[in-house]
Amino acid sequence: MTVLRFGILTSSDRSSRDERADASGPALVKLVESQGWQVARQLILPDDLRELRQALIEWADEGDLDVILTTGGTGFSPRDVTPEATLSVIERQAPGLAEAMRADSLSKTPHAMLSRAVAGIRGRTLILNLPGSPKGAVENLKVVLPVLAHAVELLREDPQAEAHH
Predict the structure, then answer these.
(1) Contact residues for 117 (Cβ-Cβ < 8 A; gap 6+)
(2) Is the CB of residue 60 less than 8 Å from the CB of residue 122?
(3) Phi/psi at 70 (5° precision)
(4) Is a pLDDT exceeding 80 seen at residue 2?
(5) CA distance 100 to 104
(6) Where would I find the H helices in the chain?
(7) The whole model's pTM is what?
(8) Which residues contact 5 (CB under 8 A, 6 or more apart)?
């Protein structure tokens, strides 16, 4: 079994100021750990393009994370800049992941059309944007769970990756 190492980055002005508890980050930790994977880093930042971008670069480039999950900042609010931060740091997009999450969400709510979430790769790290609500974040992550281990095998250039096609 491939043990994946995750970073979970919450983008929320209110949670970063301790005005509201972060519920999405802990919900994602619970789901990730239920898969036998590990959460190596967690951080709450304000909805700030520069700060989000810097954290994504540092986390991906240090090489100790396989997957970075962001939660929050994917909507239409002027402060929602997580997709822009992600797009500014990834080297390759992974649109199928974002499309699958959006398609599944659309079967539950028409508001899924308002998601601007993206997915992509920086180096050997996969970055996935998830909604800010705990329910939405968990539902979206569950959609892509079946392919995450294989995606990481491919990024690691693991010789076993071909056997899992």
Answers:
(1) 74, 82, 83, 98, 101, 102, 128, 129, 130, 131, 140
(2) yes
(3) -105, 145
(4) no
(5) 6
(6) 13-16, 24-34, 49-62, 82-89, 95-106, 134-156
(7) 0.96
(8) 37, 38, 40, 64, 65, 66, 67
- Non-local CB neighbours of 2 within 8 Å, separated by 6+ positions: 149, 152, 153, 158
3-class SS of residue 155: helix
How many folded domains does the chain comprise? 1
Domain that holds residue 15: 5-159
Gap between the Cα atoms of 45 and 13, Å rounded: 7
Distances, alpha carbon 77 to alpha carbons 46, 73, 82, 115, in Å = 14, 8, 11, 11
- Assigned domain for 20 exists: yes
> What are the pLDDT digits (tens) for 104-154?
999 999 999 999 999 999 999 999 999 999 999 999 999 999 999 999 999
Nearest to 120 by CA among 80, 155, 162: 155
* CATH number, domain containing residue 38: 3.40.980.10
